[in-house]
Amino acid sequence: MTILLTACGLNPSDTEDKQTLRTEKFDDFFTKFTSDSVFQIKRIKFPLVTMISDNEDRMRINETPIDRWSHLNLDYKSEYQTRQIDAYTQEMRMFKDSVIIELRGIDNGIYIDYIFQKCGEQWYLILKRDFSS
Length: 133
Fold this sequence. Notes:
By secondary structure, the chain is α+β, with helices and mostly antiparallel strands. The protein has one domain: Nuclear Transport Factor 2, Chain: A. The chain contains 4 helices and 6 strands. The protein has helices spanning 2-7, 12-18, 26-35, 37-42, and strands at 44-53, 59-64, 88-94, 98-105, 111-119, 122-130. The protein has a 6-stranded mixed beta sheet with strand order 2-1-6-5-4-3. A hairpin with a 3-residue loop joins strand 3 and strand 4 (98-105). The relative contact order is 0.22.
């Protein structure tokens, strides 16, 4: 438990105060995260780490500070998979304390994961993986 709390940036003592809060449902969080840019900035662990794979299968790390962040819209519509340019699907893989939003291109190389983690009783975007080609 201490490892998870450290990764989320919480102290073990912080969790005692958080226990009185209602556990946030991911669907409620995600709706607000996608639509409200002010809320979104509060719910990202900055600097946001992005793992990027290059064409030679080497991994590099990029960090985006809060002052370079632009709103991320993950609101998905089914017609995105049939559009002419940058068509993709979006799936949500839910686990007990984490969720991965997977964007997969259709014949275009898009391959991006957004990893959300429950920290205390709240959800945060903690990592982006971009393995697009």
